[in-house]
Amino acid sequence: MKLKATIQYLLLFLLTANSIFCQSNTMNNNEGNVYSEEQILITLKAFYSNYIKQYSKIESEDNVKIVIDKINSIKKKYCTTRLMNKIENEELDEDPFLKSQDFNVEWSNTLRFRKDSKKQNIYIVSYSYYDNYKRTNINKIIKLTLVKQNGCYKIDSVW
CA-to-CA distance for 33 and 153, rounded, in angstroms? Predict the structure, then answer.
């Protein structure tokens, strides 16, 4: 129970920090297109933690529409309009942000984020889990492009 409360406080802190950063940078954006590695990683952690948490509620929630609305709100906050439109217009077999059809809140514990050392503005997200059916560990790797819009970092593409 303490672990759950700690994770919730951490998520709240990350969201608050990102909101404050975006608001202050929108008002005082003197840095042009300079990308802050630390702020990008905070943004990615906040997005993925909230995204996985909400998706994991779909099966247990009585009103799925409320959960879907929260997921869409998270995507709207952290993704560009271009990416949102692209995702909405494609028929997808799996979630593009997790490369999976299923969701488990425990995946948040294995999330890792790093910058691609060869390409600018590309970040790599990975997580792992044990697949009971295949009886093996599965490692998922997702690549993202981030852009800066109005002082905030947003996910612009995912593959």
Answer: 10
pTM for the structure as a whole: 0.75
Q: What is the CATH number of domain 2-28+37-158?
A: 3.10.450.50
pLDDT in tens, 9-65: 444 444 444 544 554 443 334 344 456 889 999 999 999 999 998 988 887 767 888
Alpha carbon separation from 99 to 20, 53, 96 (Å, rounded): 30, 16, 5
Q: What's the farthest any 2 CA atoms get from each other in the chain?
A: 52
128 contacts 139 by C-beta, under 8 angstroms = yes
Q: What is the token pair recorded at 23?
A: 């608001």
The encoded tokens of residue 69 equal: 């609305």
Enumerate the domain spans of the chain: 2-28+37-158
Spell out the residues 6+ positions from residue 78 whose beta carbon is closer than 8 angstroms to its own.
Answer: 43, 46, 47, 154, 155
> 75: which 2 tokens?
């995507």
Q: What is the pLDDT of residues 99-153, one digit of tens each?
A: 998 878 888 899 999 999 999 889 999 999 999 999 999 999 999 999 999 889 9
**HSE toward the beta carbon, residue 55, CA cutoff 13 A:** 23
